């Protein structure tokens, strides 16, 4: 099965829309509150670009949109990841290896630019377990579970990088929004590639902080 990149990105866009309130609330606790907007708008622009340029590789289109149009710290970093995945998928003879290579190289690019390490409470904390799972030959669903677990674990981390590092212990108990948003990429990948994998729904996996039910 060849994964439909455009469908994956549309699924990611739907996930970002569903999770927008939660991601915004998380970022209001640990940042400046714009991450939900940036991710949602970047993916909406991506979908529009895909409609206008259907002949171009979808992940490459997404990478260019995030690099060129999405603001904040997260936009360019997500653009680096998506662009690396696009290049790896183009070059790889095996799609699974392409995803593993793309995530590995995208993570390396993000770390070169942002200098974050695991345990700094950033998107790196979702990317590292996803990379490790895919490098080990795990299913896409297991990669998504690893990313989601990595993002959830940031709730127990005092930030050492990014805006959250300025708020001290205030963010403890809630996961990092960037890690959570990146984990949704892997959720979308698994949803498209392995639809019977049993992953939960976005509103269950990314609840609004403090909202019962």
Automatic annotation (TrEMBL):
Transferase is among the record's keywords: yes
Positions of the DhaL domain: 3-191
GO molecular function term, any single one: glycerone kinase activity
One GO cellular component, as annotated: cytosol
GO biological process: glycerol catabolic process
SUPFAM superfamilies according to UniProt: DhaL-like
SMART domains: Dak2
Record field: transmembrane: none
KW Kinase (keyword) present: yes
Keywords carried by this UniProt record: Kinase, Transferase
PANTHER family membership: TRIOKINASE/FMN CYCLASE, TRIOKINASE_FMN CYCLASE
Protein name (record): DAK2 domain-containing protein
